[in-house]
């Protein structure tokens, strides 16, 4: 194809592009869906992070202590800024848990006697394992009881002239060498999958309307009788659909970065690693994927039996990739570098690295993007052949 024919094709395609973009961006329902979902998950992520930190650092666990007279120092040693200990003479543990206590610690009546006789008396800790706050309170109580128990053991050994070191031949110290970016990767692991899901959701309504919708309205048949190559029709529709998905994902990325300063990242051992350059790079990374998602949605909608059938199929189609990415993250599978050539997986790895500030290979990023572009071209050619089939309008 020489330069003259290329310019001729582009000139023929411009009115079609204008028509497709106008129809896509005039659809208020599609725009509302794209914008709403693009802003929804960044806000939910920021709000969830704030709630998690508040629960971990500010919420005080309530503990009911029954029988404190048998162990006078127990209430004093348990009391801390994160534990509110309330002494009770008696009470039913189940009833106290229903009254709002996170834990109920019961000291039996023979505790003092058995303690003085060195007979290891028991303590009974009642908890509701279905309550997340109770699990946190249980951990705090066990930590303080373990420290108190070790103190008593050391005092007893010292009273008998035995060095406590004899029972501890070595000391284990944990030293965390993870960086804030590494810890941030655990919390932000779901963000790339949600950004990719935004592409599917933001472009779904437009892709169905421009394919199955136009077929039912018979406007697609009118378009195909025009002297235009079929690949131009598919390309114009793909670009219009991809524009909504791509800009929706960019809006989600921008909202997430703007909300990061208001998120308590420091309390979680994290720091904001995403810069303006990172946002631009994420947008460029998502562009080939937006084109691929758009053309696949159009092809899937064209092969559907009706408009409603297309909506159902595309709704299932957008969940499958997210489930795949979640399974890969949950299994913590170490993927080879060559996996970055695959669409979805490559974009997920690059977005994760850009979000938390880890190294991302430009060579693999470029190679993976080129593979995605090749798949886009192949899908466009396949769609062009599908438009020439006589059975395309048989279901309409």
Automatic annotation (TrEMBL):
Predominant cellular place of this UniProt entry's protein: membrane
Q: How does the protein's chain sit in the membrane according to the entry?
A: Multi-pass membrane protein
Residue stretches spanning the membrane:
185-208, 238-259, 279-302, 314-333, 363-384
**UniProt xrefs under InterPro entries:** ABC2_TM
Q: Where in the cell is it found?
A: Membrane
ABC-2 type transporter transmembrane domain span:
37-358
Task: Provide the alphabetized UniProt keywords.
Answer: Membrane, Transmembrane, Transmembrane helix
Its protein name is ABC transporter permease
Q: Which organism does this record belong to?
A: Microbulbifer salipaludis
């Amino acid at each position: 194809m020489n330069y003259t024919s290329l310019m001729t094709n582009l000139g023929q395609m411009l009115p079609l592009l204008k028509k497709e973009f106008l129809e896509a961006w005039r659809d208020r329902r599609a725009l509302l869906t794209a914008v709403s979902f693009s802003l929804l998950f960044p806000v939910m992520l920021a709000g969830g992070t704030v709630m998690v930190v508040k629960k971990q650092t500010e919420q005080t666990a309530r503990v009911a202590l029954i029988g404190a007279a048998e162990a006078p120092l127990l209430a004093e040693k348990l009391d801390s800024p994160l534990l509110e200990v309330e002494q009770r003479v008696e009470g039913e543990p189940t009833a106290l848990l229903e009254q709002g206590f996170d834990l109920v610690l019961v000291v039996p009546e023979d505790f003092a006697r058995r303690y003085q006789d060195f007979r290891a008396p028991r303590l009974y800790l009642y908890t509701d394992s279905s309550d997340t706050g109770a699990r946190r309170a249980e951990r705090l109580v066990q930590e303080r009881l373990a420290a108190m128990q070790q103190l008593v053991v050391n005092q007893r050994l010292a009273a008998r002239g035995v060095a406590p070191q004899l029972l501890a031949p070595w000391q284990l110290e944990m030293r965390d060498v993870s960086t804030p970016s590494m810890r941030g990767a655990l919390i932000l692991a779901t963000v790339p999958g949600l950004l990719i899901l935004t592409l599917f959701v933001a472009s779904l309504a437009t892709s169905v309307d421009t394919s199955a919708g136009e077929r039912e309205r018979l406007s697609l048949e009118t378009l195909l009788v025009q002297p235009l190559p079929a690949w131009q029709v598919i390309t114009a529709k793909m670009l219009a659909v991809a524009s909504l998905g791509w800009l929706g994902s960019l809006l989600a990325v921008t909202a997430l970065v703007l909300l990061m300063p208001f998120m308590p990242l420091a309390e979680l051992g994290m720091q904001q690693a995403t810069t303006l350059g990172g946002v631009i790079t994420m947008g460029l990374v998502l562009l080939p994927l937006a084109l691929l998602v758009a053309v696949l949605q159009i092809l899937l909608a064209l092969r559907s039996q009706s408009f409603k059938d297309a909506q159902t199929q595309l709704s299932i189609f957008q969940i499958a990739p997210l489930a795949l990415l979640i399974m890969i993250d949950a299994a913590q599978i170490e993927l080879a570098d060559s996996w970055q050539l695959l669409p979805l997986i490559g974009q997920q790895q690059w977005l994760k690295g850009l979000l938390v500030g880890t190294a991302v290979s430009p060579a693999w990023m470029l190679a993976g993007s080129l593979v995605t572009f090749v798949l886009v071209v192949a899908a466009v050619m396949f769609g062009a052949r599908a438009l020439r089939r006589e059975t395309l309008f048989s279901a309409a």
